[in-house]
Amino acid sequence: MKPGRAVASFDSTTGLLRGLSHYLAGSDAPLLGQLPGALEPVMSALMSGVNRMPRGMADRVYALSGISEAIPQRRLSEVSSDALAEWIAEHYPKRQYPVIFLGSSNGAAVHLAAALDAPWLPQTVLLPVRRSGVDRDAPRAEMAAGREAGRQLLDANPHLGLHHMHDPNQDRLMITGMSYFRVKWLRLPDAYRRFIRERLAPGGVVVSVECGLQWPVTEVAARHHFQFGALGGATEDEYHHGGPRVADLLRRYGAVRRRWAPPPWDAYQPEAEWGFEESWLADLEGVVPEPLRRVRFDHPERMSPVVAEVYRAWYEQNGIPTERLLFDCFLLVEPWWTVRTGSIPFWLAFNSENSLSAAHSYLDRTGVPDEIRLMLFSHGTESIGLAPIDSWEKLSARARKVGALVGVDRKAFPRDFAVFARAHRELARTRHLYPIPAPMPWERAEDVMRRHVDHTFSVEP
Question: Domain of life, per the record (predicted)?
C-alpha cells in the first residue's frame, strides 16, 4: 500500500508536515497542501455549498469525506512503517539544513522550524481504519473491534506502538465509520537516520520536540493501547465517569445512554496525538551530533507563547513591525503566509474553551497588538467545551485597529467545512506584505526560548 494512501490527510501531523515542507520549498500551501491552488476557488464554492445543506446531510458529507480515506482492515498488513518514514522524509527539498526537528506533532514547533529553515520529522501519524457495526458511544465494543486489526498492523511493523484513540466528543462525525489508529515509532526509523546523516549541515543541530502530555489507557496487547477521549473540551473524568455535560451531549445527538462506559484504564501513556514516546531517544546516540537539544513541555500549547516571542525577536532584528498577531488552529497552519504577512504566530491546539483561555492569557501578559487575525478549525460537532463563535469574535476584537476571523463562516461554525479552502485565500489577501527574512540561527532562537523556561517548558541541555 502506498504510504500516502494509508495516512489521514485530515490529521494534524499531515497538515503540519505539508505546510512546513511547502514553506521550505519556497511556496504556500493552498487547500492544506493537498491540491493545486488553481482549484481553490472551485473547492471553496463546493464546500460553501455543503455549509448550506441541512444539518444531517452536511454531517454525512463531512463524515464520508473522512471515511473515504480509511484503510480496509484486510489491507493493514500491507502498511509499512519504513515506507511511511520514507514518505515523510521525501516531502522536504533535497538539500542540507542547519537544524532538524523531530518528535511530537505541534503547530508552534512547526512555526519555529520555519523560522530556522528546518524540517520536522514527526513521531506520530494517524492511520484511519474502516469499520462498521459499532456504536460510537460504546467504547468497549470499539476496543474489541480494533483488537484483531491492531494485531495485523503490529505483526507487520515491530517498531510501531499503536494508540487506538476513540473520542465520541470531538471526533463524533468521523468515527461513525472508522477507527483512529495513531501509531508512534518506538525506534528511530532508518529513513530518519539517513535524513539526519545526509541532510544535516556540518555543525548543525538536532532538536527533539517532546510533549509530556499523558492520558489514561487500557492495554490491549503488547505495543497496543486503547485511549478513550482526547485533549480538548471534556475532561478525563467526564470521559470515564460522565457528568451533566456528557449527558447533554448524548441527549442532543439522540443517543440512548447518558454516559459512556469505557473499559477500566490501567496505565498512563503518552497522549495519542500529541504525546512523545521517549524510547527512540536511545537510537539517536551515534546518529545525532552532540549535544542533542531537547525542547520539553507538558501541554501542546506551552510552546506557543515561547515561539511567538522567537518570532518577535526575529522580526525586530529584520526591521519588520511586530503589531500583527495570527492565531492559527489545529492543522490550519500556513507558515508561508504567516511570515509574508509579518504575523507573529500563536498556535491553538483546538477550538475549545481551554484554547480560547490560553489566547486571552497571552494577550493579558504581552499586551494587545494593532492587528489580530484568527484561523479557526471546524470539526463538525457541537462538542463538550467548544468555545462559541461570538467568544472567538471577542478575542479578535481585542485588537487596537484590525480584528478578523480569517475565512470563517460564523453562521456555519463548527460545521464550517469551507474554512479549509477560504482561510488560506483570505490570509493571502492581507495587505502590506514583507520579504521573508534570512533564517534565524538556532543559537539566537535558543537564547530567546531559555528566557521563558519554567516548570512547564524547558530547553536542554
Answer: Bacteria
> Is residue 404 a contact partner of residue 374, using CB atoms and an 8 Å limit?
yes
Phi, psi dihedral angles at 427 (to 5 degrees): -65, -40
- Over residues 99-150, the pLDDT tens digits come to 999 999 999 999 999 999 999 999 999 999 999 999 999 999 999 999 999 9
Q: At 300, list the grid cell.
A: 501542546
| Number of domains composing the chain | 2
The tens digit of pLDDT for each residue in 345-387 reads 999 999 999 999 999 999 999 999 999 999 999 998 999 999 9
CA distance 375 to 327: 6
C-alpha cell at 347: 498556535
Q: Could you say which of 270, 297, 324 is where a domain stops?
A: 297
HEC string of 105-174? Answer: CCHHHHHHHHHCCCCEEECEEEEEEECCCCCCCCHHHHHHHHHHHHHHHHHHCCCEEEEEEECCCCCCCH
How far apart are alpha carbons 325 and 311 in whole angstroms?
A: 10
Domain of residue 229 covers 3-297
Contact 268, 258 (CB under 8 A): no
Note whether 170 and 122 are within 8 A (CB): no
Whether residue 118 is found in the same domain as residue 227: yes
CB 59 within 8 A of CB 173: yes
Same domain membership, residue 325 and residue 291: no
**256 neighbors 173 (Cβ within 8 angstroms):** no
Stated as kind and residue range, the H or E segment containing 423 is helix 419-428
Q: Within 13 Å and on the Cβ side, how many CA atoms surround 335?
A: 31
DSSP symbol at 359: H
Are 342 and 389 in a shared domain? yes
**Pairing of β 214-221 and β 293-297:** unpaired
Paired with 71 in beta bridges are 129
Omega before 414 cis (within 30°)?
A: yes
DSSP 281: G
Task: Compute how many other C-beta atoms are within 10 angstroms of the C-beta atom of residue 317.
Answer: 12
pLDDT in tens, 395-430: 999 999 999 999 999 999 998 988 988 999 999 999
> Interior CA angle at 409 toward 406 and 413, to 5°?
110
Chain CA centroid to CA 93, Å: 22
